[in-house]
Amino acid sequence: MGSMVQITARDGGTFDAYLATAQGGSGPALVLIQEIFGVNHLMRYQADCFAAKGFTVIVPDLFWRQEPGVMITDQSEADWQKAFQLFQGFDADKGVDDIAATVDYIRGQSSTGKVGAIGWCLGGRLAFLTAARTNIDAAVSYYGVALDDNLGEATSIGGKLLMHVAAKDDFVPPESQEKIKSALADNPKVELHVYEGCNHAFARPGGANFVQDAALKADDRTLTFLKSTIA
Q1: How far apart are CA 59 and CA 105, in angstroms?
Q2: pLDDT at residue 32 is higher than 90
Q3: What is the pLDDT of residues 51-109, one digit of tens each?
Q4: Lower CB count within 10 Å: N or C terminus of the chain?
Q5: What is the pLDDT of residues 132-167, one digit of tens each?
Q6: CA distance 144 to 49
Q7: Residues near 32 by beta carbon (within 8 Å), at least 6 away in sequence
């Protein structure tokens, strides 16, 4: 089980983050970037799982500017409505700034001095932007949304980026997927995998679109990628 810590935002104020220490006491650092449901039970569970694998993991509350402490699920219509309201009111630029502050906070606790990030859905978009705008060493994007307008930033990626794309993603239409693949095809810092027949959130345990085989394959690739980049 982890604990809550506070991080100072670059433009003032503080926000909470869930911190799970690596099994054994120290390990490479990892920032987990939330979906549209906040730092909920699933995000904390993911953090604890990565900590058990030897990573020091932190999950910042990126909705704090709208409503601190959001912890909702994908299991009710009311939660979905609230999640989409938060998504629509979210400032992605400020979110990346808060991730950058989180990277600065956790880098000093990394046993290798390196930091990686993993994001899902909204977090998948933010993982891409984090790779392009911050000094993160490696980032992983699971079915990132609303990337069309930011693909030009791929030339600014400083570390490495792993992309997991759901071929049948309801939130990323085929034309957007083609733009993503075309923009990243010749970038040596980007590794992209497409999961045929899979819909958005295919790797979310317990979700309506969960596909175990695809999720296991994506997660195995993620772990291999992290071991090669930040461990």
Answers
A1: 12
A2: yes
A3: 999 999 999 999 999 999 999 999 999 999 999 999 999 999 999 999 999 999 999 99
A4: N
A5: 999 999 999 999 999 999 999 999 999 999 999 999
A6: 22
A7: 43, 46, 47, 50, 57, 58, 59, 117, 118, 119, 123
Return the domain boundaries, the chain.
3-229
Q: Does 208 have pLDDT greater than 90?
A: yes
Q: Please tell me whether residue 178 adopts helix, strand or coil conformation.
A: helix
Contacts of 126 (CB under 8 A, 6+ apart): 33, 62, 92, 95, 96, 99, 119, 144
pTM score of the predicted model: 0.97
Specify whether 164 is catalytic.
Answer: no
Radius of gyration, CA atoms only, the chain: 16
φ, ψ at 219 (rounded to 5°): -65, -35
Report residue 103 as tokens: 């990277």
Per-residue confidence at 13, pLDDT binned at 50, 70, 90? very high
- pLDDT at residue 24, rounded to an integer: 85
CATH entry, 3-229, from 3.20.20.80, 3.10.310.20, 3.40.50.1820, 3.40.640.10: 3.40.50.1820
> Residue ranges of the alpha helices (H) in the chain?
41-52, 77-88, 92-107, 122-133, 174-184, 212-229
Q: Which of 61, 74, 164, 200 is catalytic?
A: 200
Q: In which order are the strands placed within the sheet that holds 190-195?
A: 3-8, 14-20, 56-60, 27-33, 110-120, 138-142, 160-166, 190-195
Active-site annotation holds for 200: yes
